[in-house]
Amino acid sequence: MNITDVRIRKVDKEGKMKAVVSITIDNEFAVHDIKIIEGEKGAFIAMPSRKNADGEYRDVAHPINSETRRQIQELIMQKYREEIAEA
């Protein structure tokens, strides 16, 4: 799996959400609405989710294993830091 495109839209409002990200995988599959959240232990990504009938949020799309999640998070956070540095 290769992430071939990362698009970051920074959020200007106050709050923990810092950006919304879209990624393209292998120039064939896109995942939208990945969020960059500023947490107590630093920034992390939250995969796209939807609130279900009992009020819980469930991921709509997500990596199947921790290694893939780590790769996606590292690439997104690297691109995010580059955009912050350019601003």
TrEMBL record:
SUPFAM superfamilies: SpoVG-like. Could be involved in septation. Belongs to the SpoVG family. The keyword Cell division applies. This is Putative septation protein SpoVG. HAMAP family: SpoVG. Keywords: Cell cycle, Cell division, Septation. It holds the Pfam family SpoVG. Gene3D superfamilies: Stage V sporulation protein G. PANTHER family: SEPTATION PROTEIN SPOVG-RELATED. One of its GO terms (biological process) is sporulation resulting in formation of a cellular spore.
